[in-house]
Amino acid sequence: MTLRITTLAERPEFADSLFDMEHSWAEFMFNDPLADLYYPFAHTTYADCVMVADTADEPGRLAARSCMVAFADTADDLPDDGWDAAVRKGWLTREKGLTANRVSALEITVRKDLLGGGLSGLMLAAMRDNAAKMGFTELLAPVRPNQKHLEPHTPMQEYAFRTRQDGLPYDAWLRVHVRAGATIVKVAPRSMTVSGTLEEWRGWTGLPFATSGPMEVPKALTPVHVDVEHDHAVYVEPNVWVSHPLT
Q1: Which residues pair with 4 in a beta bridge?
Q2: Which residues does residue 188 pair with via DSSP β-bridges, in sequence order?
Q3: How confident is the model at residue 247 (pLDDT cuts 50, 70, 90)?
Q4: pTM value?
Q5: Of 98, 178, 189, 238, which has the most beta carbons under 10 Å away?
Q6: Contact indicator for 170, 164 with CB cutoff of 8 Å
Q7: Residue 96 neighbours by CB distance under 10 Å
Q8: Do the Cβ atoms of 84 and 34 come closer than 8 Å?
Q9: Which class does domain 3-193+238-245 fall in?
Q10: What is the pLDDT of residues 129-181, one digit of tens each?
Q11: End-to-end CA, the chain
Q12: β-pairing, 224-227 with 232-245?
């Protein structure tokens, strides 16, 4: 498959269809409120940080996208609120007119019918190249391990550092990052937070949400905390910070 990958700034014709691509994300994942500080501006303010791809067989039809954000940061350690922190710090950097000294991946999404064909790795390589062209020496990523949802009760600290006999990460998506040159740095224990009423969660998942306590939800990396008496449920997703050196 011949893939053409550019920034959205180079191919603005993809702006209108950027988020129309059929995907495999769970609906509840679109309800982290901090996403509103990035995605409505992805095609304008962040166009240089968004990568788009189409194929020679279907030119002009989006095959995959990736998003990253640059931000100013003076902390020595990576934030525990990984994905949320990257989005928030990116917005603050823009609003305050600061100079970014870090850049983080936010997502790689491959069209649903093209999953399993290695496109994620190609998009990751393109993202690394783009970050280097922008002058950064490191690409960070709060990685969402793609097999962790099969073990929602396993602590991320245990899962993230589990390896196979060959020494590579047990998780397939973490493995792609490590093979690309990344180092696993730490767990971001509260990388994303999604809260809602029980009715909202029923709409997002089709599940009853009728009993208080931890509840397993398909594609969630940890159980969702349900409180029937107070009519809300909260999902706190841990991610894994990885670091890609670019020099």
Answers
A1: 54
A2: 239
A3: confident
A4: 0.96
A5: 238
A6: yes
A7: 8
A8: yes
A9: alpha beta
A10: 999 999 999 999 999 999 999 999 999 999 999 999 999 999 999 999 999 99
A11: 29
A12: antiparallel
